[in-house]
Design brief:
Blueprint lengths: L28 E3 L2 E4 L2 E5 L3 E3 L8 E4 L3 E3 L2 E8 L4 E8 L8 E4 L5 E6 L3 E10 L9 E2 L3 E6 L9
Parallel strand pairs: 6-13
Antiparallel strand pairs: 1-4, 2-3, 5-7, 7-10, 8-9, 8-11, 11-12, 11-13
Length: 155
């Protein structure tokens, strides 16, 4: 029964066009056509579902939050609801400069950090069912690279 989709919360869209374009949907919705023409009043079509599929970026975890310069940082993306498009590493926490794209579509990466510093990693995620969709990014995950070396202590 079509009435289950439209029992109480139907919103009327007035149009005489044979097509309807909808934008900026935040949740899935059913649509149908109701024809009022002469003696045909209230004739309705079958309901069509426009399903909204969101993309969740997920969160990054690592067992190597501190590495020696020249060592590998291993990072894993968890809880994403889409496909990894690529990873980025930056020397700035807001990714405004110093960015390098890491061409990996895997949820786990190993990346060599060649110099001392704080590096921020993020993943770009896109839901594969969303043609022409916009990728979302995880929050930046910091990894510290430091040079090893002996330290002298005075006693």
């Amino acid at each position: 029964s079509q009435s289950r989709y439209f029992a109480t919360s139907a919103t009327q869209v007035t149009s005489t066009s044979s097509t309807l374009s909808v934008t900026n949907l935040s949740s899935s919705r059913y649509y149908r056509v109701v024809v009022n023409n002469g003696s045909c009043v209230g004739m309705s079509s079958s309901a069509a579902l426009i399903q909204v599929v969101s993309t969740t970026a997920g969160t990054i975890s690592s067992t190597t939050a501190n590495v020696c310069a020249g060592g590998d940082a291993t990072l894993t993306l968890n809880g994403n609801s889409g496909n990894v498009q690529n990873w980025q590493v930056s020397t700035t926490s807001d990714f405004s400069s110093g960015n390098t794209t890491i061409n990996s579509t895997s949820n786990t990466i190993n990346h060599t950090l060649s110099a001392d510093g704080i590096y921020y990693f993020r993943a770009s995620v896109l839901n594969s069912v969303c043609t022409g969709g916009t990728a979302v990014y995880t929050d930046g995950y910091p990894v510290v690279a430091t040079s090893g070396g002996a330290q002298l202590e005075e006693r």
